[in-house]
Amino acid sequence: MSVKPLRVAIAGAGNVARDHASSLRQIAEETGEVELVATADTNPARLAAFNEEFSVGAGYPDVTALLAAEQVDLVHICTPPGAHLPVALAVLRAGANVVVEKPATLTLAEFDQLVEAEKATGKFVATVSQHRFGSGARKLRRLVESGEAGRPLLALCDTTWYRDQAYFDVEWRGRWDTEGGGPTMGHGIHQIDLTLSVLGAWNSVSAVATRQARTTETEDVSLAHVVFDNRAVASIVNSVVSPREESYLRFDFEFATVEVRHLYGYTDDNWTVTAAPGYEEQVKAAWEAAGPTHVRSGHIAQFREVVRALREDTAPPVTTTDARQTLQLVAGIYASAFSRTPVDAKDLGPGSPHYTLMQGDGPAW
User: Cα 220 vs. chain centroid, distance in angstroms?
Assistant: First the structure.
């Protein structure tokens, strides 16, 4: 029996929207469960080119016009970060669900507005966290749950990427009021999110942020030491001045080390598992039994799960609770860096200057 496809729209027709549209097109070809029916963008030429490339039937100058003209079930928000919150609020109030790119909002205060709107409307917000959905990350989380690797002890989370000055010369980039931060907020947040999905809630952070090579309001490098509720500790590095680019995560457990090296997306081949002496068979068996294989991390892996959840009228991954924890750690890194003191998670409530502005009263430069 054929299923009625979810009617989907995309807000923003830039580069990241192409990843969304390509993924939605593939899901439509595979299952027929989605239909991309409309796009909104403030640039008419960009909108026309996008709709022609992806055979989208309707284009609108903004989300207000789109929502007035179209009945949609889901809107993917691919605008610059500063527009995420107002677009998401409009979509929720119009009775549709939201998939929003990272960072979902520019501040924790804005994020809490999003949570309240989600509760008030009964609709769902999913934040793009594509690295959680590759088979390697799923196997790792199940390995942790099984206890076969022992307790997590130490993690490394390095996002060492390269962006030249021209990248930051785009009007909205490298500004606190439109992007919310530098590589900690806009680049490393993907690896930070995956680390949190493995290690759970964080407790305290001590950090440094600096401008090393780019002319920008925000940092271009940050380093942080994080303590988790389970007593694991992690080193987190975020950079956009590193010519040899890499995304590297390492998790050291009592009985095994699990690593992944990639750039913008991993496959099973990017993962290595090293057992402690005497635990080789135990760790190997646990990893092999831990779950799915051959699923590349990427938008489509998460979007398949979003579609499945909406079909079942359940909250799609990654929920606002999950996404808020990641954004809170980003705020904590900035708070510690600019106050030059360790910061606890509990210190980042409405009374903190970093609740309403990522940079708070800083930065010192």
Answer: 19
